[in-house]
Design a protein that fits this description.
2 helices; alpha+beta; 9 strands; two-stranded antiparallel ribbon
């Protein structure tokens, strides 16, 4: 049975919406902790979505036993971003997607942006 490991590296609890996994029940992972979800053996697709300040942020998309019996993973920033999310197949760092320093890099770039650029981005 496939497993999904969710690790929260932050110093605060992190809420995740679970679609297609965990009986579609939300999951909150305590600070500096890991949770494990079981996925069914048959073909299954779903998403694990990080929630920041009540808003959906980054989404990990997972398909087990998809086309040709293969597993597929991807990352999306669906409604902005509020944290760092990565996904990889267990034990194979070459499959990692996402940036573990995404928010730190974003904040650094924002700090260097001109007032005009910041106004343009605010819309």
């Amino acid at each position: 049975m496939p497993k999904i490991f969710i690790t929260n590296k932050s110093g605060q609890p992190q809420k995740f919406l679970c679609h297609g996994f965990n009986n579609n029940k939300d999951l909150t992972v305590p600070a500096h902790s890991k949770s494990t979800l079981q996925a069914p053996d048959h073909q299954n697709s779903g998403a694990i979505i990080a929630v920041h300040d009540g808003h959906e942020g980054e989404q990990a998309e997972i398909t087990f036993n998809g086309f040709g019996g293969n597993d597929f993973i991807d990352i999306s920033n669906i409604v902005g971003a509020g944290g760092n999310i990565t996904i990889q197949q267990q034990g194979d760092a070459r499959t990692r997607k996402g940036d573990p320093l995404f928010m730190q890099n974003l904040r650094r770039a924002w700090g260097k942006a001109s007032p005009g650029t910041k106004n343009d981005l605010r819309g």
